[in-house]
Structure formats: structure tokens, C-alpha cells
Write a structure and sequence with these properties.
By secondary structure, the chain is mostly helical. It has helices spanning 33-36, 44-73, 82-88, 92-120, 124-151; strands at residues 2-3, 8-9. The protein contains five helices and two strands. The chain starts with a strand and ends in a 6-residue tail after the last helix.
Amino acid sequence: MATDSIGSVELTENGAPADPSAFLIEPPRKRTKTTAGRRSRTNFEMLAWLFMRLSGVVLVFLILGHLIIQLVLDGGVSKISFAFVAGRWASPFWQGWDLLMLWLAMLHGANGMRTVINDYAERDTTRFWLKVLLVAATVFTVLLGTLVIFTFDPNIS
């Protein structure tokens, strides 16, 4: 009997383990009776994976464009004020740019957090409530940000 960091394993005369299944790695969660036979019509995980890649590429261009235009071409952080934002958001182009950046960044981040929750939350109830909180925070932030972009009043007194 040999001992390693995992525990004791019986070895044969040539040094191989007597029971090869002793070194198998089990999957993080096994399918249960309720999930084994259930198939969805769409492959949500594949679509979520594809969204992460495509939104990531679009976000790189949106954010780099935003940084270059705002910080390099327009004179830097010292010029950003209420009047600067009011002037920018008077244009539908900049409203659309910021709205697209907000929506893609929030959905991209929420999808990444959903993946982390799926990977690390062990109990089903914990996973469920963490996802409920994630969806609530995402919806709240996206709706509030969209409301601010479209109802921004530069003539506030």
C-alpha cells in the first residue's frame, strides 16, 4: 500500500494502481433524474458563449473609441463637466454610443458573473438566489442608465 497526498492506494507489483478508478476525477455536478432527460430546443450556453465573444470585440472598439475621443481629442478629463455631457447627449449619435456601451457592458458582465455563479455555487438554492440578485441588479442598472440617457435635461436648475 502506497500513500500520496490524496490518500492510500493499493499498487500492483509493477507500481500501477490496483484500482484504476481511484484516480478518476468526478465532474463538478452529476446529472440528476430531473436534468438527465431534459433537453432544450436552443443551446443557451453556446449562444451565451458566442455573445461573450462578439460583445467583447464590440466593447473593445466602443471603449477605446470613447477613451480616445473623450480623453485625447477633446482635451482630457479637465474638460468633462455637466455642460460637456449635456452637449454630447444633445446628439442622438452619442446617446446611441453610450447606450450601446452601457447595455453591452452590463450584459457582458452579467453573463460572466452567471458563469462564475454556475461554477462556484454548490447548492441549487444558493445558485438560484445569486442569479436572482444578479438579474435584479442588471435590470435595475440597465433601466436606470437608459432612463438617464434618454431623459437627461441640460436645462436643470
